[in-house]
Amino acid sequence: MVAYFWFNFGYNNEIRILDDAKVQNVRVVDRFNNRQHIIGTIFLTDKHLIFVDPEGKRETWILHSLILSADKLPTTQQGCPLRVRTKHFFSIEFIIPKERDCVELHATLNQLKAESHEKLYCYLYQAPNYLEKIWDPFLLATEYMRMGVPNRDWKVEDSNSNFDMCDTYPPIIYVPMSTTKQMLIGSSKFRSRGRLPVLTYLHPNGASITRCSQPLSGFSARCLEDEQLLQSILKTNSHSSTMYIIDTRPRINAVANRAAGKGYENEDYYSNIQFKFCPIENIHVMRGSLQKVLDACEMKNPSMNQYLNALDSSSWLQHIKAVLDAAIFIARAIDIEKKNVLVHCSDGWDRTAQCCSLSSLLLCPYYRSIHGFRMLIEKEWLSFGHKFSDRCGHTRTSDNKEQSPVFLQFVEVVWQLTQIYPTAFEFNERFLISLHDHSHSCQYGNFVGNCEKDRLDLGVKERTYSYWNYILQNVNDFKNPLFRPQSTYASEVLLPTIHSQTLKFWMNMYHRFDGSILPKENIPNTLTHLIDHTAALNDHARLLEKRIRELRTILENANEQTNHSTTSLPEQDGSSSETEPSQTANKNLPPLSLSSDVESGINSDYSPSDRTSVSPPLNLQHQSSGEIDDIPTIERIAFELNSIALDWRSYQAPLHCTCSLPFDSAQRKYNCWRCGENFCIRCIEHGVRLPGLYSNSLAPVCKTCARSIKSSLSMFENSTPNKSNDQKQAEMKSSLSINDENKI
Predict the structure, then answer these.
(1) What is the reported pTM?
(2) Domain with CATH 3.90.190.10 in the chain
(3) Which residues, listed in sequence order, are joined to residue 199 by a DSSP beta bridge?
(4) CATH class, 17-113 region
(5) For the chain: N or C, fewer Cβ within 10 A?
């Protein structure tokens, strides 16, 4: 059964079905079982392709901006196949009865992709009510201040404030204190795309990482200003008399670029320089490698040898290792050798971004937190101009040859590190998958455009929602339950030793929609489930302890009143009414001195040892009516007990939510704290206060239970005032007496 939903679809949006965009009797075949198929209807909206299975009540939603390709395959006896592949690695094959319908659907899908940035999904997306169109400003200067810059060695330079020097750099850059504007301009003209060497990371020991693009050196050209700038960078570090220049291209590629007037630094012109190649293949090789991975993942019933050989022939993990090896070398040079490192590739926005961000991640524990990782993405990838729109193919006019999984490789290397150091990272796998998906979805404006200047021109901060705001509002979904901030690995530099056996194939990324071959449950999700369940039970237990103390206090004071009435009977007039003692006892019931609760408005000073300080019975008549109204009734206690589920359904059990959304590795399963069942993000309300919780905090509750709780609260509040205080006290006392008799 295949039915998959793009989980961040704005479910408050109004669905608009396009005219004549409906195809019936469409068959979908399960690639793991050719005999199993689904027959349903395809609908097209202005934002989604929707496949509805009326019998199984399953729906497939595919966001148009996530569609990688829609290919019409040769006609078969069953019909005309149309295979749709997405950028988040979902593949589905529709068999359409009529070839004409298939041709029209294929043409329509290709036309629905945005033809320009202004028509991207982020400008149309209507977020859920809890998400506001507010951008938390990222200030590059604040991040550099955290690293201690500017200082005596480094200064801020605003020569690029209008993007005149380099239109793919941020408006402010950080350069050595001794540099002059003439040096910066000269170096900018000598570097490809004007991307001159600038500071990107400063380690506490004084060693730095700078980044740039390849020099326009050809076979013999040189630039004195560029050579002076590199010498200025070298002098900022007093611990070493030499520095590294890391070229992340294979040597043969760098040599070939010399013929085009580019190339790499001539060591004869740059003194005290150690030059090193860290070979990482170009975007075209990486694109082909990923395609081979996807072909292997889509094989129908392959043997083990066929599957493993297909993965091996893709060389994907070899490329991942090459990126990681380069980052580790840079981190070792900074931390152990205490040398400055200058990193570049061809234009300095692909492999350079990978290596600089990953080496910073290894060196600085701050970047392993959720907030710090966001700063790292903003600095290395967004501010310094990774070409997200070109590499992700955001628009119909994007050149297919420019698309490449550069950012995916960075995300995967981070995932590999989380597998090696599971307690060192605050974020979980779901966060990394979400980050990759939204770099392609165009649902948020953060990853639109090729550089900071593009995003300013497109007005994304004024017209779109921020991905980081979405993360902030759902931050608990993306936290790693294994994270230990005080652990050795979490607070130190990470310098792993990578062997061939170290790296793993990321099943939850590339096979996330193949539920039949994935484990039903993984350790982080199980831990999150246990943590949430324990928190709910602890909170509920505290309320039960509170109610037990209340009932004990009422019972003890009722017994004291009875004893007092019994000892005073001989002194009373014989004509007194027989009901007088009980009425007196009811009127003199003590106030409740209880733990704090927003709903009950009760004091938080109570403890079992405080019972000796209860006011004498003679003073009880002075208690206010508001305090008497807070005496818990049997109905209220029963209501509180029934509002919390003691048993929760395991994450392993359900494959689909009640709304038909299939659960996959990228989606968080939520347990309703009232009924204990599993639900998706669409079917859970996070702003519900359950009467059975001591803390009165907001809890995740399914929509059905939320409606039930709200109606029950309304009925409870309306019915409670109808009873007098004396009646409520008498009912409580009577119930307590019955319970005592049953115990005896």
Answers:
(1) 0.83
(2) 140-515
(3) 210
(4) mainly beta
(5) C
